[in-house]
């Protein structure tokens, strides 16, 4: 038990240091994203293992006086790296390229198909939605408050609060599929037509 507590403590502390390094521009966005994804994956696996012993990560954080607000935000609230959450439009110069649009379409279809195949565990759904959110954020033609972006961020935040082995209920899966389909339709409508 204490080994697991030590691992959880270390993951939270490492995430806090990583967040500070990213904010101070000590680490490149690409390196940050890779390392942050690893820490989030480790955190989700460990927190689902410890969910009976540590029902609240925030309480664990407070009990051991960790003072890691950025880590708690990244691991518990957001569940995705800051680069995914706040993808800068300037970072993608050719953001309306066909490749990015194709990537978005592929991610939409993959996520919808996985739900149809009853893949409803958090560790199956979360990566698909993270990929979809990342690809949507690459397109500067989409407004910041685009329906698909906000719905995917809401779902990612909701899934981040669940354990990796937890499964969506039938109602949640149906709602997610509906949100994916309506977001996909809005996405297709937002794309410029061939003549413009």
TrEMBL record:
The keyword Transport applies. This is Vacuolar protein sorting-associated protein 28 homolog. It holds the Pfam family VPS28. One of its GO terms (cellular component) is ESCRT I complex. The keyword Transport applies. It comes from the Eukaryota. InterPro entries: ESCRT_assembly_dom, Vps28, VPS28_C, VPS28_C_sf, VPS28_N, VPS28_N_sf. PANTHER family: VACUOLAR PROTEIN SORTING 28, ISOFORM 2 VPS28 (PTHR12937), VACUOLAR PROTEIN SORTING-ASSOCIATED PROTEIN 28 HOMOLOG (PTHR12937:SF0). It is found in: Endosome. Residues 96-192 form the VPS28 C-terminal domain. One of its GO terms (molecular function) is protein-containing complex binding. Component of the ESCRT-I complex (endosomal sorting complex required for transport I), a regulator of vesicular trafficking process. It comes from Salvia splendens. Belongs to the VPS28 family. Residues 1-86 form the VPS28 N-terminal domain. The lineage of its organism: Eukaryota, Viridiplantae, Streptophyta, Embryophyta, Tracheophyta. Keywords: Endosome, Protein transport, Transport. Signal peptide: none annotated.
